[in-house]
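Self-study notes.
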Amino acid sequence: MTRAQQVGVMLGLAIVAALTLLRSDDPLFFRFAREAVFDEYQRLAPRPFEQMPVRIVDIDEASLRVLGQWPWPRDRLALLVDRLSDMGVAAIAFDILFSEPDRLSPRSVVEAVEGMPADVLGRLPDNDQIFANSIVSRPVVLGFGISNDGSFLPQVKAGFAFTGEPPFGAPPIIKAATPLLPALEAEAAGLGHISLDPGNPSPVLRTIPLLLSDGTQLYPNLTLEALRVAQGASTYVLADAPDKPDTITKIKVGDFVVPVTARGEIWLYFSPDRAERYVSAARILSDTQPPEALREALQGAIVFVGASAAGLQDIRTTALGQHVPGVSIHAQAVEQILSGRFLSRPDWADGLEIVSIALAGLLIVALTTFLSPAIALVFGLTVTVAALAASWFAFRYAGLLFDPLAPIVCATITHFSATAFRILVIDRERREVRRAFGKYLSPELLYRIEHTHDALRLGGDERELTLMFVDVRDFTGISEKRAPKEVVAFLNILLDALSRDVIAHEGMLDKFIGDSIMAFWNAPVDVPDHARKAVRAALAMRRTLASLNADDAFGFGPGQSVAIGIGIHTGLACVGNMGAEAHFNYSAVGDTVNVAARIEAACKEVGFDILVSESTAAYLGEMALLEAGTLPLKGRQSRTRIFAVGGDEPVAATGAFADLRFVHDQLLEALRACAADAAELAHAAGEQSSAINEALPAFYRRILRRSEHFPRCEGQRAEERVE
C-alpha cells in the first residue's frame, strides 16, 4: 500500500466513522428527511378506502347553518345520542371536550338572575343532566384533553393486563387533564384522550399515542376506547419487548391486536379523505325520519362525533398532504385496525440503517482507493437503487418503514470525499510526470548546446516554424480509472513512441505538458520542407498509435483504444532560450504557437485526428487534404481555414480519393449555400471515405452540425440583402 493510499484509507475511515456516529445520534434533519420519504411512500400507495363500520357525524358548515352556531345546547347532543342509539350504532365517541357546564342550559341562564327563588330553579331543566341521562347504559365514549394546569385525572373505565412488567414509563406523560363534569364522567362507558400529537414539532401527523401515562396509571385514547366499548371488552392487554423495560410492542383490544411503537404510538396509514365517511349532524337531528340507507350505514358502526367546520379550528395535515378534521384521524385509526393494514418501524431498523452506512462507506473507500472511483460510483449507484427498492418493497408489501435516504446520503458524501482525495493525488502525480518529461531534450538541442559557445544565453530570433501540438483524448477519464503508476507507465509508452516519430522526421521536441506534446520544425537548425515533414510525422504518429492499440501495448484490454488529436500550423515565431538565468529552456512563443494549439483543440469539434492550417496546407503539394471549414479559434478575431489530412501523396493519387474529393467539393458548396441535399452528400461522402481512412466517416457525420464553419460568400449575402 502506497503512502497516498494509506492517507486515503485513514481519511475515508474517519469520514465513515463521523457519518455513522451522526446517524446514531439521529439529529432532527435526519428524522425530518426520513419522515418525508415515508410520506411520499403513502402518497404513492395510500391505504385503499374500504367500506368499514366506521362513520363520522360531522358538525359541518351545513349543520351550523341549520342548527345554529357552536356550542350547541347539550340537550341537543342528548337527542343526537338517542337517535344514534335507536339506529343501533356500536359506539358513540365524542371528539369534544365537556369541561364546563352548559351555558345555554335554562337553569344556568336563570341562575344569573338576581332574586330568583330556589324552587323555581329546581323546576328548570338542566341540559348537562339531560345529556348525562341520555348516555346512561349506552356505548358512549367521552374525550378529555391534556392540561398544563391543575391535578385532575379522569377515571379509567377499563382494566390493563401486562405480559411483563407494567410499561408505565413508555407512553407520553400526562400530568393533568381537562376536567370532565362529574355526572358525565360517571355515566360514560369509556373515557379517552383526544390529544393527537403531544410534543410533536412537525405539522404533519404521522403517529398518534394510543396511551398516556402519569407514572402509575395508563390512560387510553379515544380510538382505543371507541374500539373497546364497541366490542364490549373490559380489559386491554399490553405486550412488551423482552429484556427492554418500559417498552410496548402490541396492544390487544377485544379481538384486535394493534402493533405499536415502543412508546405505544400507532403509525397512521392514511386513506384519502372521502365523503362516504361523513354524515352531517343536521341529517341525524332533522325532524324528518332518517332514510333507511342512513340507518343501514350506521347500524353496528363506531361513530365519532366531531367538527369539520373551519371556524372550529380542528384541522390537521396528513402524510398525504391533505387537511382534514381531527375527528377523521380517530376514524381512520379505527379503520386501519379493523382492516389489519398496519405500518410499523421495527426496533432494529435504526441499527440496520447504521450498520448499512458503515459497511457501504467502508466498501466505497476501499473501491475508490484500491480500484477506481468509477467502480466505486457504480457500487454507490447500486447501493442507491437497492436501498430505494428494498425500502419501497418493504413498505408496499410488508408495511415496514426503512429509511433509504440516510444510507444514500452518507454513501454519496463518502464517495465524493474519497474521489476528491484520489483526484488530488492523481493531479499531484501528473505534475510529477510533467516535471520528469520536462527534462527531456532533443538530440538537436544537445548538439547546439555542445557546439555553440553562446547557446546558454537568454534570447531568441524570429523565424518561420511549423508548430505541432499532440494531445491524448479523454486523459482525465484514463487517469481516474488507473493507479498513478499505471498512468505514468502509459504516458512513458505513448510519448516515447510518438516522440520517436517527431525525431525521425527532423522535428524538435519542445516540451511534454502532461499528456500533450509540443514540437516544431525549422529550429534550432534549418529544416528544408519543414511543413511537409511535420505532416509526415503526424501520419507516422497515426500509424504508431494504431499499432500500439492493436498490440494492447498499454495493457488496457481489448476494445480499450487510445486516441490523439494533432494540430499543425506554419508561421513566424520567436524561438530561443527563455526563462531565467538559473533555469531556462529552448522553446518557441508567439501567435503561431497559439494557433497550432487551438487547431489541435479543434480536433474534438471537427471529429478528426490530424488538422492543419491553410498556411501549412500551402506547402503540402499533392497530399490528401480535405477542407474542414473556417473555424473561429479561441483568442483570435478572424477565422482560420483548416484542412483534414486524409493521407500522403500515394493516397491522394488513388481513384477512391479522387471520387471522395469530388463529392467533398459538392458538399462544401451545398453547406455554404444551405442546400437541401447537404445531408445526402454528407452521407455519400461518409460511405466513400471509409476506404480512405477509418476516422473520416465520423468527420462527415459531424460536418452537418458545423454549418457555421462554412459561411456563405459575400455575393450570396448581398443577394439576400437585396431580396
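Second protein, same conventions, sequence then structure:
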Amino acid sequence: MAGLARSVAAAILLLSTTTFGFAANKVIIILDASGSMWAQIDGKPKLEIARESLRTVLQSVPADDEIGFMAYGHRQKGSCEDIELIVPPQAGSASAISAAADSMKFLGKTPLTAAVKQAAEALKYTEDKATVVLITDGLETCGGDPCALGKELKETGVDFTADVVGFGLTADEGKQIACLAENTGGKYIQASDEKALQQALVETVAAPAPAPEPAPAPAPDPAPEPAKPEFNFTPSVVMAEGGDPITDGNAWEIYKAAADGTRGDQVMTEYGALKTNLEPGDYIVVGRDDEARSDQKIKIEAGKTYNPLFTLNGGTLVIHPHASQGSEISGEARVDFAYPGGSTTHYGDAKATVPAGEQKITVQIGAGTVTETVQLAAGQTVEKDVVVGVGHAVLNAYYTAGGDKADNSGIGFEIVKAKKKIDGSRESVEHSYGPDSKFWLPPDDYVALTTLDLAVVEQPFSIKAGDNQDVKVALDAGVLAMSAPGAYSIEVFSSKKDIEGKRKSLGLSYGDSWQQTIPAGDYVVVRHASDQGQDKEMPVTIKAGERTEITVQ
C-alpha cells in the first residue's frame, strides 16, 4: 500500500516539472471528491492516498508556480452543481491546497465535464495559456460530454491542455474519458496499479524532448526495399482456452523489458484489437480485460511478424443488489469483489471481469452487509441476485407532535441499537444531518438520538426487511431568540438550583444575540458583560412549538 502511495506521489511530482505539469504555467488541479473515492486499494481508501500524495508533492513545487485547486462532490450527495474553486491559481498555494484536501468530505456525484469547463474559464483559457489536471476515479454522472468539451476547449482556447489521471478505472472506463485529454493534446494516464502508474508517467512525462538535429546532407536515392508486412505485432486475447477472441473492452499495455526482466519504460497503451509495429528488442506485453490479465515476454526480431495468444483465465460476475426480497435493484449498493490476487469495488448494478477461482462478494446497503462466496470458472459468466435484507427509514423532527417540522440543516440523527451493552452504552449504527435523513437498516430495534441545538430526544423504533418507514420525532421544544445589547456573551441556565444553590448551565454563546431550539420548560437567561459585576439575568418560560423572544438589558 505504501508503494502505491509513493508511486502516486512520484507521479504528481513529475507533473510539476514536465509537459504534464505546472512549471511556468497557471494550473488548476481538479480532485474527484465523489463518494466512490471511499473505495480501497490494498486496504486504504483512495481519498487518503490522494490526500497524502498531494501533501507530499506540493512541498516540492517551486514557490513561484501559480497553482489552483478545484473539487467536486465534496459538499452535497446528489447535486451536479457541487463544483468549487477552493484555491484560486496563485504562487505559494501548496499549504492551502493540502489543507483543503485534508478537510473536505467525499460524498457526491461526478460532474467532471462541468468542472473542467469551469476551471478553463477561471484560467481565462481564451486569453492565456492554461492547463487543467483532472484526477478522477469515476466517469461523468451528470450528463456532460467530456469528448465534446475537449474539442471545444482546444478550438476556442489560446493554448489549452487538459491532462487526465484515471485513478483505479478499468480499461473500458478509461476509454470514455481519455478523449478529453487527447482532444486537447494532453495525456491520459491509467493509474490502475502501482507499476502501471509509474511506467506510464516515465514514458509520457519524464523523457526529455530530443534536441533538433541538423538537416542531413542530400543522399542518393536508396535502392527499393522488399515489401514488408503492414504490421509486425498483432496479438489476440481470449478469456479462457479455446474461447473467442476479445476485441472490445480489453486493453493492451506494452513495456520495454529491463535488463533484469522486469518492466521498463512503457511503450504504449491501446484498446480493443491491436495491430502495431514494434522496434526490434525485448518487451513485456500485458493483455487485460477489467481485472483479468495475462503477461508475456516477447522478443521482436527485424523482419519477423508475431501473433501471440493471451489467455486471461478469467470470468465475469454480474451482481444485482437488492435491499429486500422482491425489491428493485439498488443503486445505493456498494459491491466489493475479492478475487484471487486482488479486489475491486463497484456501485449499484455491478459487473466485473476477474481472475477465475473463488470469489468473495460483499454487498453493502446502508448499515446492512451480506457476503457470499462464488466459484467462477475460466470463461464462465455468473449472474446473481444478492439480497441484503434491510429496511428503509426516513427521519424527521417536529417541534411538537403534529406541529411544525424542524426544517433545519443542523439537526442531527444518530441511530443506535436499542439493546444496551453491559456497561449501559448502546452500539452506534449510522448518523446523518438535516431533515428527511435516510437510513437503510438491518431488522432490529433501534433508538434515534435526535439533536437540535439544546434539544436532545430519544425515539425508539423497529425495522423489518422491506420496511419503508417515516419516523417522526417529537422534540417537545420551542425556539428561544435572545438579545442582550452590548453583552460579551449570553448563557442559558436551568431555573431550578441544586442543593448548593447553583444552576446547571445548558449553553453559552459569545456576542449579544443568540437563537436556540430548547426543550419546553423554565429557564434563566444571563447577560454577561465584559466588566465583572455587570451581569443581568431574566427568567423565561418556553412552550413547545412556540417562538419566544426576550431582551436582557
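Instructor comment on the second fold: Residues 1-23, 200-212 have pLDDT under 50 and may be disordered.
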